[in-house]
Amino acid sequence: MARDGTTAPTGPAAAPVAIGQAASRSGVSARMVRHYEGLGLLAHVPRSDSGYRQYSEADIHTLRFIKRARDLGFSIDEIAELVSLWHNRRRASASVKRIAQKHLADLQDRIARMQAMRDTLAHLVHCCQGDARPECPILDELATDGAP
Question: Which of 8, 52, 83, 97 has the least CB density, counted as fewest CB within 10 Å?
Answer without folding.
Answer: 97
